[in-house]
Amino acid sequence: MGESWPVPDVLAYLAGRWRxxxxxxxxxxGLEGRFEGVTSFDTLEGGGLISRESGAFTWQGVTRPAExxxxxxxxxxxxxxxxxxxxxxxxxxxxxxxxxxxxxxxxAADLYRxxxxxxxxxxxxxxxxxxxxxxxxxxxxxxxxxxxxx
Length: 150
Prior knowledge:
Radius of gyration: 15 Å
Order of helices and strands: HEEEEEEEEEE
Structural class: mainly beta
Number of strands: 10
């Protein structure tokens, strides 16, 4: 995925608005979809960030609104975070001190394996591979920091 960029403080790095583009490939069927929108990382009362993703997801020619909310709580050090679903359930840990991290999330019979790579001060990428009895997906998301002029 290229060179990674170390992040000394993951919550400070993520704070703000990011242009978000995701490709979704069903590796079994060959179908492809696309999400385009924004992700805002805003201060969470009590510490951490709340991540709100919103935009449009197109699958098989049909475009629908899509959104997701996650919580990024302080981890064991400034380069680390504890990522949780909106309802507080654990999702995965995140350590970007090296600029690269791999996380696993078992979900029922499926396994979600995420690879996080920071490409610079204003760019990062996640690649999730989802495998299970009924799933064989590859989700690649690029984040580009929005500036006040964008």
